[in-house]
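sorry for the late reply, my laptop died twice this morning and i had to redo everyting from scratch. anyway the thing you sent over, i finally got around to it. pasting the sequence first so we're on the same page, its 233 residues, then the predicted structure underneath. double check i copied it right bc i was rushing
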Amino acid sequence: MITLAENFRALEQRVNEACKQAGREPGSVNILPVTKTFSPDTIRMAIDLGYHRFAENKAQELKEKAIELQDYDQLQWVIIGYLQTNKSKEVATYASEIQSLDRIELAKALDNRLQAAGKSIKALVQVKTSPEVSKTGLEISEVPAFLNDLKESGIQTLDLQGFMTIAENTENQDDIRKCFSSLRELAERCRDITGLALPQLSMGMSGDFEIAIQEGATEIRIGHALFGERNKT
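ok and here's the structure:
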């Protein structure tokens, strides 16, 4: 039986090999384990393997696991799923980063909660690079105006770091690559427009992360390749 440790080490080797193939330094891409539906005990095993930053899709599940694992003071939680404004308190309280920022009203709701908590968090803007109606995020054409609105809002509690996307769910690698390359190109344009560093590109999951690395991903979000099949809830 393959162990969790073997899954993690195998993935790390695949990531390093993908970096080499892309002419990038091994270790230049961060692995963000996605733990939605997996138990705190499973996360504890990942912590023992040296991981301290985990992603959740739902704010309530993030909150519950953060409370359950609060004895680990180095843990950081990232919200990567669509966030309703009425869930901003959970994220402001328990998360260190949001990768699904997609509207100004959400930014303002988070800012109100973060100011009350006296803290700030990192933020990535989620961009819809796929034609699928099920995908969320800003359209590429909407991003420059959103960044301008965010700047004019004067919000200081969201540390804008870059962009996140989910590629099209398809077997066509050219279509997948286009999703990732379009995000990279958008980031380059936005750096020129805003003067912001925007260094982070969160893109690539278990089935397509090698392509994402070729296209400049700085972080990949991995669930199935690390933890196996998800518990259905």
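The two ends are 25 Å apart (CA to CA).
thats about all i looked at so far, will dig more tmrw
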